């Protein structure tokens, strides 16, 4: 019981529920509190996916792993938009040779 209380205190410090994340993601950090085994299992699996970064679009992911999410926002524009961090997004550099067709290259080398 003491372990569960400690876990709850730790979660309370960072848990920032957001209605846009949905019930499953919002409840995932609390999976140990659910007695209904099937729901507990779903929430535990969701939590594990959150930890791995599968749901970094969620506001909850930003609450727990802000550095990881911010880093991903640099290369993923939709993620940057979801977190209102478009200023972090760095578009890929344009390749000056992109769009050239092979035939033209062959003709140039002849």
Provide structural commentary.
There is one protein chain. The chain is mostly helical. 57% of the residues lie in helices and 0% in strands.
Name the descriptors.
single chain, 110 residues, 57% helix, 0% strand
Task: Please outline the helices and strands.
Elements: H1 2-14, H2 22-27, H3 37-52, H4 59-64, H5 66-73, H6 77-82, H7 102-109
Number of strands: 0
Name the structural class: mainly alpha
Indicate the low-confidence ranges by residue numbers: none
Shape: elongated
Quick structural summary:
By secondary structure, this protein is mainly α. It has helices at 2-14, 22-27, 37-52, 59-64, 66-73, 77-82, 102-109. The longest helix is centred in the middle third of the chain and has 16 residues, at 37-52.
């Amino acid at each position: 019981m003491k372990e569960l209380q400690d876990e709850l205190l730790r979660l309370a410090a960072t848990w920032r529920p957001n209605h846009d994340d949905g019930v499953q993601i919002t409840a995932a950090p609390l999976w140990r509190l659910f007695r209904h085994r099937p729901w507990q299992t779903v929430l535990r699996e969701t939590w594990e996916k959150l930890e791995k970064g599968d749901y970094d679009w969620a506001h909850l992911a930003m609450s727990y792993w802000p550095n990881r999410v911010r880093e991903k926002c640099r290369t993923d524009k939709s993620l940057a938009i979801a977190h209102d961090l478009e200023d972090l997004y760095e578009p890929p550099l344009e390749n000056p040779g992109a769009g050239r067709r092979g035939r033209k290259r062959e003709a140039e080398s002849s």
